[in-house]
Amino acid sequence: MTKPIPYVNDEVRSRDFKYYIFDWDDNILHMPTKIRMEHLDPESGEWRPVELSTSTFALVRADTAHYRPPAEGGWKEAFRNFADSEDGPNRFLEDTKAALDRVASGREKPSPSFNTFRKTLVDGRIFAIVTARGHAPATIEEAVRYFIARALTPDERETMMSNLRGYRRWLDRVEDFGTDGEELDYYLGMCRYSAVTYGGFKDRMESDPIYSEKLATATTAARPELAKEFAIRDFVEHVFHMLRRNGGFDRSVAIGFSDDDKGNVKCVSNYIRAELSKRFDGIKFVVYDTSDRSLSKGRKVCVSGQMNLPGF
């Protein structure tokens, strides 16, 4: 039986290089996962357990006079639902499915970067997920696969595959393509999934000579932002080496970052200005603040170079 000839979109050869870094919670999806904290009751003076959404936690996390992690278990207990479980359902995947179901049913508006992430996938562009969660990379990749199956239409998935084969023919000089599943595996394997409180990620960061020194003097509150810096640098280096290997610096290269946490936005903006834009002066950077839910596409807060990100 003759193997069917898959459609290959060779028009991707004319594209510029745009890559994306996404925070997950309240940026791609409004996840129902709750953070377990304790709140000081102003009347009784007692600390009482509360469950906070990620968006609420982003607003009150610095208010240590009124909010603290559980007295028993500390921060590990506070973020218990944000790490992989060895004995039970994967909470991240279950919450991803629930969040996508709410969007699909119209019960909730898409998060600010939801449609940009969809377009990134359909276009077949390399991306990174950088989140304060504690999941293994394989867990996040599995959630992305579910997003592809649930949020993309059949036509969009077909377009995505034709774009992926176009990139493979152009950049990897492939003519004998694998199955759709094999080509999707290759594409998602080129992307990066960094959960900055995951043990494997923390080990890599602590073994880095620059960031081990930064961690030694960082406050507890500053560590998540510092970890996102490290994850972003890792992705930018990955893109740089990938393009250099393929001789791809003959056109515009741009990287966009979006996050709903103002602290992360400020930290990453400063980091880009102070370090990344100088080290990678041929790459254009854009940062988007998606903390204001009244702005459907977020707010551009930092630009190094000139760049338009469709969908933001």
Structure summary:
The chain has 11 helices and 9 strands.
Supply database-style keywords.
312 residues, six-stranded mixed sheet, globular
Structural features, described:
The protein has 312 residues and is α/β, with parallel strands linked by helices. It has one domain (10-28, 104-304). The chain has eleven helices and nine strands. The chain has helices at 54-60, 74-78, 91-104, 114-123, 137-151, 154-171, 180-190, 199-207, 209-217, 223-245, 262-279; strands at residues 17-22, 35-40, 47-52, 67-68, 127-131, 192-195, 253-259, 283-289, 299-304. Strands 6-5-1-7-8-9 form a six-stranded mixed beta sheet, with helices on both faces. A three-stranded antiparallel beta sheet has the order 3-2-4. Helix 3 (91-104) packs parallel to helix 5. The longest helix has 23 residues, at 223-245. The N and C termini lie far apart (45 Å). The relative contact order is 0.15.
Structural class: alpha/beta
Number of domains: 1
Order of helices and strands: EEEHEHHHEHHHEHHHEHEE
Overall shape: it is globular
Strand order of the largest sheet: 6-5-1-7-8-9
Q: Helical residue percent?
A: 40-55%
Integer average pLDDT: 89
Helical run tally: 11
Q: In terms of per-residue confidence, which ranges show pLDDT below 50 for 5 or more consecutive residues?
A: 306-312
